[in-house]
Amino acid sequence: MGQVTAPSPVTPAPPADLPGTLGELRAAGHAYRTVKQELRENLLARMRSGADRFPGIVGYDDTVLPEVERALLAGHDMVLLGERGQGKTRLIRSLVGLLDEWTPVIAGSVLNEHPLRPLTPGSRALVAEAGDDLPVAWLHRSMRYGEKLATPDTSVGDLIGDVDPIRIAQGRTLGDPETIHFGLVPRTNRGIFAVNELPDLAERIQVALLNVLEERDIQVRGYQLRLPLDLFLVASANPEDYTNRGRIITPLKDRFGAEVRTHYPVDLDLELALVRQEADLVAEVPEHVLEVLTRFARAVRESPSVDPRSGVSARFAIAAAETVAAAALRRAGLLAAAEPLGRAPSTSECDKKVPFLTPEAAVARVGDAVSVTSTLRGKVEFESGEEGREAEVLGHLLRTATAETFRARLAGLDLSGFTALVDEDAVIETGELVGSAELLRQVGTVPGLAKALDRLGLGDAPTPEQAAAGVEFVLEGLHLTRRLGKDVTDSGRTRYGGRV
Hints:
Layout: H1 22-27, H2 35-49, H3 64-74, E1 78-81, H4 88-94, E2 102-106, H5 121-130, E3 136-140, E4 145-149, H6 156-159, E5 161-163, H7 165-169, E6 180-182, H8 184-187, E7 191-196, H9 203-208, H10 210-213, E8 218-220, E9 223-225, E10 231-237, H11 239-243, H12 250-255, E11 258-261, H13 268-278, H14 287-302, H15 314-338, H16 347-351, H17 372-375, H18 390-410, H19 416-419, E12 428-430, H20 436-443, H21 449-455, H22 464-480, E13 486-488, E14 494-496
Parallel strand pairs: 1-10, 1-11, 4-7, 7-10
Antiparallel strand pairs: 2-3, 5-6, 8-9, 12-14, 13-14
């Protein structure tokens, strides 16, 4: 699973030593293969070599990918069923990597026709006339992928094609195949075509796909073109929409040879790996903070207050990590503006050995995660009975995730040194705009701090910002386990201290 990434629009230039004519192609011993034969043979080659078959797909090795591989080996068109954010489109697009890197086409053909298998009357006439001198172009696999998001305004003309009125005006007849402007499906001939959210297609549009899937021909404006299209067709759908009567016509479901059910990451480690792979972080986010966000996403997904039919996308945890990193970067920027940092120390400061402040590095803390509950609320579909309580529900789940991470990371560790720091009159103040130096100054030397930072994966020599992140996490964990009091001031600062 993963975030969706479209194939690169930048097409590399073909190698200069590839055949340039049909005669050279035959002399090179090139053999025609269908798309499904390419996928099958290239998949088997990767299996035998031990190469990664689906780069970037996380969490499906033992569940979804074996079913996808069986479908590819069987030559079955398939539909992926799953809730939003389960990486269906990412998986579909990764199939392009199993195609041949370069494939020959008749130069100028809008249907990517193979020189040894021309489809249209015009191309067959061209091959017969030019013979071995027929120019051959080479198509990169990134250009052999077509995709359509099913929307209510999708037309048969978009997918299959329609009569071109300009060519009719030029004097051609309706029975002439040259009058047709081909749609997305035939233009992806000899490639992979994907229909995202298939049930959203109107029924009359779904009917247009029946012949494409089974008979591999198309019909436009009342006359039939026998075009044996060479396609691998794959669709995605939400399980609820796919199984409801009337959302997808039964004959179309019957034409898909394989139905593969996707899912969210089955355990915490897989979801963590997905966040690490996909999140574009503008600041350092320590491992314990990432774990809090991942546990939070899983708790939201499993909460009875959230509509399970909609699901909670894997993008939720990814966006949460990016939001927390942005909060850390914002703190670093504001603290740099508030302090005269970045200047060279004066001679008097050097003589007096005054500690010289350096700019605050951007390192996320667990307190930065509070902003996630408001900024990502729109990604969650709540049950109707929870209207008005969305922020409260998310806040509770975030605190639960923080406490679980605290227990998992620091269980059995003596943290009495932290509780001894404060009493009813003494407090430790932190918050969004409290710098690491200020926080560490309040804490001073604490017995057990080094072991806590090591348990949190911050190493033997953490930076001040990393140490501050560890200290804040310990304080928050002690509060959530009812061993330390907590109060939030009107200015937004958090004070830890006193009894619960």
